[in-house]
Amino acid sequence: MAALLLWLFSLGAFFFSSNAQELPETYRKGVDLALENLHALPRIQKLHVFLRSVSKSEHELGFDVTFIYHHFLLKPTTCEKGTDDPSACHVRENRPLMDCTVCYRTYGGEIEPDPKPYAHCIPKPALTEEMKAERLDHCNKMGYSRGSAVLLGSKGNE
Predict the structure, then answer these.
(1) What pLDDT shows up at residue 3?
(2) How far apart are CA 150 and CA 3, in angstroms?
(3) Residue 123 and residue 73: Cα distance in Å, rounded?
(4) Is pLDDT of 150 > 60?
(5) What CATH number is attached to the domain comprising 142?
(6) Would 36 be classed as within a structural domain?
(7) Residue 70 domain-assigned?
(8) Per the domain annotation, does 41 fall within a domain?
(9) Which domain holds residue 98?
(10) Nearest to residue 97, comparing CAs of 74, 115, 119?
(11) Domain presence at residue 3
């Protein structure tokens, strides 16, 4: 009986420590967009996977139109990019995390092509305060329309 309890505790600790977060589908689409852009770069050789959200914001503009802002981290793995099953990949502890920001407009839950979705990922140690400010400025300009609230004035979901 004690062995069974120890095994169940170990299994629960494994799943709890996996850092996998469930994301709503609208945010998951933005993460997928960032991963697609990142893995298209020739200098990126290894697969990256979602680690966790840093901040996220959702601003409803009406008529089933929503503006999404999502700041998150990706972790590099030992698998080559293009790997179909990332669950078998191990995290590379010797590589920095990727710091990513995406912002985009959705209509009916789908990413709209206009304005063009913005995705920016950079290794975390290289991220500067100026880059952070440029990201926010770019996203605020995308999401602002006359008479609506700006992104920074909206309430986050975290």
Answers:
(1) 35
(2) 56
(3) 9
(4) no
(5) 3.10.450.10
(6) yes
(7) yes
(8) yes
(9) 21-149
(10) 74
(11) no
Using the predicted structure, report yes or no on whether residue 146 has a pLDDT greater than 60: no
The values of phi and psi at residue 140, to 5°, are -65, -40
Q: Are strands 98-107 and 65-80 parallel, antiparallel or unpaired?
A: antiparallel
Nearest C-alpha neighbor of 91 from the set 52, 38, 34? 52
**What's the domain count of the chain?**
1
My answer on whether omega of the bond before 115 falls inside 30° of 0, hence cis, is yes
- Tokens in use for 134? 């440029």
Confidence check: pLDDT of 20 > 70: no
Burial 143-154 (b: 16+ CB within 10 A, else e): beeeeeeebeeb
Note the pLDDT of residue 22: 82
Mark residue 109 as left, alpha or beta (left: phi above 0; alpha: psi -120 to 50; beta: remaining). left
What b/e sequence results for 51-79 when a residue is b if at least 16 CB atoms lie within 10 Å of its CB, and e otherwise? bebeebbbbeeeeeebbbbbbbbbbbbeb
Q: What is the pLDDT of residues 82-126, one digit of tens each?
A: 888 888 889 999 899 999 999 999 999 899 998 999 999 999 999
What pTM was computed for the model? 0.76
Cβ atoms < 10 Å from Cβ of 90: 8
Distance in angstroms (rounded) separating the CA atoms of residues 68 and 84: 27
